[in-house]
Design goal:
- The structure is a single chain.
- The chain is α/β, with parallel strands linked by helices.
- The chain has a domain of about 220 residues: 3-Layer(aba) Sandwich (Rossmann fold).
- The strands form four sheets. Strands 3-2-1-4-5-6-12 form a seven-stranded parallel β-sheet, sandwiched between helices. It has a three-stranded mixed β-sheet with strand order 8-7-11.
- The chain is globular and about 55 Å long.
- It starts with 11 loop residues before the first strand and ends with a helix.
- The model has no long low-confidence stretch (mean pLDDT about 95).
């Protein structure tokens, strides 16, 4: 039976990487019921303005800076760590993504729970076999993002060390493919289809993933916080049903009439679907069917591309 969600009303929550596509809806949702602080470098004033406009306060911090947290409050109840840096510099990215997690947890070690968002990019490629939480790890995303997978693995390692050493209840959630009315991978593919840009596929198709709709991850986050333990709970976090790039691009064609152009590339990201057994045990199944979510994405971001017969369906 799935865990009951934590009641976040009236709590103090720190959200790192708040202006990102995945985190921004979380800020908007939680700022309605809790005191939310967004932590980022905020190199663009418009990002700070947007987060403050959602009802959160902001602190400017570079997590790669050993002294960056000096003036940040340390009395938060919960931290949701969405921050990720991808500069392609191993020194900087490991400092920000790996060491930064440790600094943050040590600075706020009296937390009720720390929720670290990792990625299924930590898994070694294994064709169509669903990845379990104990599956081998590997440098999955090196071709496109040289530091990403290794930084994510390093961050998980630091996270576990601090949690166990200092008794910080922690959950590590390995995200599959988050998306929603504000974007995501299917939207990028739609834009490529519109412009006639070939979509690269690994030749060992279909290329399966577990699309995770924003409504589902908003509903599941309080349950992931409830799953936190000082021994660290690691769990896959994606949609309950797998689908493939080929399938969702085909559905986008149904909706818009725009045909995708595929090209095979052995260096493209390969299939990376997940075993959802542990996720279902801890936080339950997701509710948004991927076709419903993808249709809503198009209706929200590119309604002009819908065929007349589908726009009124």
């Amino acid at each position: 039976m799935a865990l009951d969600p934590v009641d976040l009303a009236g709590s103090k929550i720190l959200i790192t990487g708040p202006s990102g596509q995945v985190a921004a809806p979380v800020v908007a949702e939680l700022a309605r019921v809790a005191a939310v602080t967004g932590l980022a470098r905020f190199s663009k004033q418009e990002d700070r303005d947007r987060i403050e406009g959602l009802g959160a306060s902001c602190v400017s911090v570079d997590l790669a800076d050993p002294g960056g947290l000096r003036d940040v409050p340390n009395d938060f109840d919960y931290i949701l760590n969405f921050a990720v840096v991808k500069t392609d510099s191993f020194d900087y990215d490991l400092a920000a993504n790996g060491e930064g997690v440790g600094r943050l947890m040590l600075h706020c070690k009296n937390l009720k729970a720390f929720l670290h968002f990792s990625s299924t990019a930590v898994y070694e490629y294994a064709g169509h076999e669903p990845r379990r939480e104990d599956s081998p790890l590997g440098d999955n995303h090196r071709v496109m993002f040289p530091t990403y997978s290794i930084s994510k693995i390093a961050a998980e390692t630091v996270c576990r060390f601090v949690a166990r050493q200092y008794g910080v209840p922690t959950t590590i959630a390995r995200l599959s493919v988050p998306y929603g009315d504000n974007g995501g991978w299917p939207y990028f593919h739609l834009m490529m289809m519109q412009q006639g840009v070939p979509i690269e596929l690994h030749p060992e198709g279909p290329n399966y993933y577990n699309l995770l709709h924003v409504e589902d991850y908003l509903e599941k986050i309080p349950r992931l916080l409830a799953a936190a333990t000082t021994d660290v709970t690691t769990v896959n976090f994606g949609g309950s049903d797998r689908t493939s790039i080929e399938e969702w691009c085909g559905y986008l064609q149904e909706l818009t009439g725009i045909e995708p152009v595929f090209t095979e590339n052995p260096q493209a990201f390969g299939s990376l679907c997940i075993d959802t057994t542990r996720m279902h045990e801890l936080i339950g199944e997701t509710a948004i069917d991927w076709t419903t979510g993808v249709r809503r994405l198009v209706e929200s971001l590119a309604p002009e591309l819908l065929k007349p017969e589908t726009s009124n369906a």
